Amino acid sequence: MSQPSVAPVVERVDAKNRYEISVDGKRAGLTAYRDRDAQRVFYHTEIDDAFAGQGLASVLVQEALTDVRNSGKRIVPVCPYVAKFLKRHDEFADLVDTVTPEVLRWLEGELG
What pLDDT, in 10s, does the model give residues 1-57? Predict the structure, then answer.
């Protein structure tokens, strides 16, 4: 497990409804979302196997949630990794909305 030679870069890719993290110009992972009014509903996070064990998921989610804060939206953590991250990072507690059956039904409709 070698460490990346340059700092990872996180970008919001609105056309794909996700944030992507890149290392040395290669996409290493993503966290996917759908916007529901003033909420950003995160439903999936993944890091490619080639980049596992480098702490990139944490960097990715930290940057994504910071972007949500800056955009004035709220966070709905359907994704288990995002929910776990939020339990360890109280600095985002004021932005978190509960995952409800209504949100899950809406998300299912969005994702088809």
Answer: 455 467 999 999 999 999 999 999 999 999 999 999 999 999 999 999 999 999 999
Cβ partners under 8 Å of residue 89, min gap 6: 62, 65
CATH number for the domain including 37?
3.40.630.30
* Domain membership flag for residue 25: yes
Convert the pLDDT of each residue in 75-98 to its tens digit: 999 999 999 999 999 999 999 999
Which CA distances in Å does 65 have to 35, 50, 82, 100, 103? Answer: 13, 24, 9, 20, 19
Residue 3 lies in a domain: no
